[in-house]
Amino acid sequence: MTTTQPERRISYLAIPTDDSAHEGVKKLWAKAGANMGFVPNVFRAQSLNGEQFLAWWNYFNLLVNKEGHLSNAEREMLAVVVSGLNRCVYCAVSHGAALRVYLEDAQKADQIGVNWRHAALTEREAALCAYAEKLTLTPAEMTAADLEPLRAVGLNDEQILEAVQVIGMFNMTNRVSSALGFVPNVEYHAQGR
């Protein structure tokens, strides 16, 4: 007897099909499938409004995936800290997987994801995590003095600006993902382990 599993919902909203999706979105899906072996559910779940999704993706990709002022591990660490604080399941799981890969240390990455204060962090990593936490939880309380711990561990203005942009991007993306119930791909759970 053959049983079929019901299709898992990945968003509270409709998901475009391969036939109905925007042409640019279909190209991104194909590229992701070829590079990653799967299409991230966030690519499907956010693509209902194709032009808006592609605009988000271009900025997100620039901040998170391209060569920047911070290391890939630092950007993913910020993503994981912000997503954990916001309790965003999709982003905490997917970026936790990326952090495990970049750190090559699953234990440290998992500790950062749950409570960064329990991880063996460098002074620079701890300063970035503390800044991400304050900006995420109490943005109205930010002052120029909050930049001093970042400067004390060697971050320059370009690196600080990039950190702020990554933190801001994940606060926004977490809210979209959580509001619409995005479900992470199962592939993320095994990455970097």
Radius of gyration: 17 Å
Q: Label the overall shape.
A: globular
Low-pLDDT stretches = none
Kindly identify the CATH topology of the largest domain: AhpD-like
Taking the alpha carbons of the first and last residues, their distance comes to 35 Å
Q: Strand portion, in percent? A: under 5%
Describe the structure in your own words.
By secondary structure, the chain is an all-alpha fold. It has 2 domains: 23-64, AhpD-like (Single alpha-helices involved in coiled-coils or other helix-helix interfaces, Up-down Bundle); 72-190, Up-down Bundle (AhpD-like), CATH 1.20.1290. Helices cover 60% and strands 0% of the residues. It has helices spanning 23-36, 41-45, 50-64, 72-85, 89-103, 106-115, 123-137, 148-152, 157-179. The model has no long low-confidence stretch (mean pLDDT 96).
